[in-house]
Amino acid sequence: MILARIRKKDIVKKVKRNVLVARKEILATMLLYEEIQSPLPASYFQLFEKKRKEGVVIKRLGFGKKQDCDTLKERIGTVKENYSFRYYTHTDKYQRLILIDRKILFFGVAKHFFQSTYKPMIELFLQYFLKYFKKGKL
Q1: Do the beta carbons of residue 14 and residue 115 sit within 8 Å?
Q2: Which range has the worst mean pLDDT, 39-43, 75-79, 80-84, 116-120?
Q3: 1 in helix, strand or coil?
Q4: Which whole-number Å values give the CA distances from 43 to 15, 19, 53, 96, in the listed order?
Protein backbone atom coordinates (compact mmCIF):
# COMPACT_ATOMS: atom_id res chain seq x y z
CA MET A 1 0.00 0.00 0.00
CA ILE A 2 1.39 3.37 -0.96
CA LEU A 3 -0.49 5.41 1.64
CA ALA A 4 -3.51 4.98 3.90
CA ARG A 5 -4.88 7.70 6.13
CA ILE A 6 -5.67 6.74 9.72
CA ARG A 7 -8.07 8.63 11.95
CA LYS A 8 -6.45 10.31 14.95
CA LYS A 9 -8.65 8.33 17.35
CA ASP A 10 -7.41 5.04 15.80
CA ILE A 11 -3.68 5.69 15.44
CA VAL A 12 -2.45 4.41 18.82
CA LYS A 13 -4.51 1.20 18.55
CA LYS A 14 -3.31 0.60 14.98
CA VAL A 15 0.35 1.20 15.90
CA LYS A 16 0.12 -1.08 18.95
CA ARG A 17 -1.41 -3.85 16.84
CA ASN A 18 1.52 -3.63 14.43
CA VAL A 19 4.15 -3.34 17.17
CA LEU A 20 2.86 -6.69 18.42
CA VAL A 21 4.14 -8.35 15.22
CA ALA A 22 7.59 -6.69 15.31
CA ARG A 23 10.36 -9.28 15.10
CA LYS A 24 13.59 -7.32 14.61
CA GLU A 25 13.46 -3.56 15.07
CA ILE A 26 11.32 -0.57 15.96
CA LEU A 27 12.48 2.94 15.08
CA ALA A 28 10.49 5.82 16.54
CA THR A 29 10.70 9.58 16.93
CA MET A 30 9.07 11.83 19.50
CA LEU A 31 8.79 15.48 20.38
CA LEU A 32 10.20 15.60 23.90
CA TYR A 33 8.02 18.34 25.41
CA GLU A 34 4.91 16.74 23.90
CA GLU A 35 5.80 13.40 25.46
CA ILE A 36 6.20 15.09 28.86
CA GLN A 37 2.97 17.12 28.65
CA SER A 38 0.75 14.46 27.01
CA PRO A 39 2.36 11.06 27.37
CA LEU A 40 1.11 8.08 25.44
CA PRO A 41 -0.80 5.43 27.44
CA ALA A 42 1.21 3.22 29.78
CA SER A 43 0.06 0.19 27.75
CA TYR A 44 1.98 1.57 24.76
CA PHE A 45 5.25 1.62 26.73
CA GLN A 46 4.53 -1.76 28.30
CA LEU A 47 4.21 -3.20 24.81
CA PHE A 48 7.55 -1.67 23.79
CA GLU A 49 9.13 -3.14 26.92
CA LYS A 50 7.66 -6.58 26.13
CA LYS A 51 9.05 -6.46 22.59
CA ARG A 52 12.46 -5.29 23.88
CA LYS A 53 12.61 -8.25 26.26
CA GLU A 54 11.74 -10.55 23.33
CA GLY A 55 14.87 -9.28 21.56
CA VAL A 56 13.39 -6.60 19.31
CA VAL A 57 15.85 -3.70 18.99
CA ILE A 58 14.21 -0.38 19.82
CA LYS A 59 15.74 2.94 18.78
CA ARG A 60 14.02 6.14 19.84
CA LEU A 61 14.96 9.62 18.74
CA GLY A 62 13.64 12.59 20.69
CA PHE A 63 13.61 16.15 19.42
CA GLY A 64 13.84 19.03 21.87
CA LYS A 65 15.73 20.58 24.76
CA LYS A 66 18.29 18.77 26.88
CA GLN A 67 16.22 19.60 29.97
CA ASP A 68 13.20 17.78 28.50
CA CYS A 69 15.43 14.88 27.51
CA ASP A 70 16.75 14.59 31.07
CA THR A 71 13.18 14.62 32.43
CA LEU A 72 12.19 11.76 30.12
CA LYS A 73 15.33 9.78 30.88
CA GLU A 74 14.42 9.91 34.57
CA ARG A 75 10.85 8.83 33.83
CA ILE A 76 11.41 5.99 31.36
CA GLY A 77 15.10 5.15 31.69
CA THR A 78 17.38 4.74 28.71
CA VAL A 79 20.00 2.19 29.70
CA LYS A 80 18.57 -1.16 28.70
CA GLU A 81 19.55 -4.07 26.51
CA ASN A 82 18.13 -3.75 22.97
CA TYR A 83 17.19 -0.11 23.61
CA SER A 84 18.89 3.03 22.31
CA PHE A 85 17.78 6.60 22.90
CA ARG A 86 19.23 9.79 21.47
CA TYR A 87 18.02 13.33 21.21
CA TYR A 88 18.45 16.12 18.70
CA THR A 89 17.89 19.74 19.70
CA HIS A 90 16.64 21.14 16.38
CA THR A 91 12.89 20.60 16.57
CA ASP A 92 12.43 22.09 13.09
CA LYS A 93 13.83 18.78 11.78
CA TYR A 94 11.23 16.71 13.66
CA GLN A 95 9.07 14.21 11.79
CA ARG A 96 6.68 12.01 13.76
CA LEU A 97 7.20 8.38 12.75
CA ILE A 98 7.41 4.79 13.81
CA LEU A 99 8.95 2.18 11.53
CA ILE A 100 8.45 -1.50 12.31
CA ASP A 101 10.93 -4.04 10.93
CA ARG A 102 11.61 -1.58 8.10
CA LYS A 103 8.36 -2.83 6.52
CA ILE A 104 5.49 -0.92 8.12
CA LEU A 105 5.62 2.86 8.44
CA PHE A 106 3.37 5.15 10.44
CA PHE A 107 3.85 8.91 10.31
CA GLY A 108 2.07 12.14 11.05
CA VAL A 109 1.84 15.40 9.15
CA ALA A 110 -0.08 18.43 10.43
CA LYS A 111 -2.30 16.40 12.81
CA HIS A 112 -3.03 13.79 10.14
CA PHE A 113 -1.76 10.22 10.40
CA PHE A 114 -0.77 7.75 7.71
CA GLN A 115 0.43 4.19 7.21
CA SER A 116 2.51 2.82 4.35
CA THR A 117 4.24 -0.38 3.26
CA TYR A 118 5.55 1.23 0.07
CA LYS A 119 9.28 0.47 -0.04
CA PRO A 120 10.48 3.75 -1.60
CA MET A 121 8.59 5.75 1.04
CA ILE A 122 9.90 3.54 3.84
CA GLU A 123 13.45 3.99 2.54
CA LEU A 124 13.05 7.78 2.58
CA PHE A 125 11.84 7.82 6.20
CA LEU A 126 14.50 5.28 7.19
CA GLN A 127 17.27 7.49 5.79
CA TYR A 128 15.81 10.47 7.64
CA PHE A 129 15.75 8.52 10.92
CA LEU A 130 19.28 7.15 10.55
CA LYS A 131 20.69 10.57 9.64
CA TYR A 132 19.34 12.29 12.75
CA PHE A 133 19.88 9.30 15.03
CA LYS A 134 23.55 9.38 14.08
CA LYS A 135 23.69 13.13 14.78
CA GLY A 136 21.75 12.77 18.03
CA LYS A 137 23.25 13.08 21.47
CA LEU A 138 23.21 10.31 24.06
Answers
A1: yes
A2: 75-79
A3: coil
A4: 12, 12, 15, 19
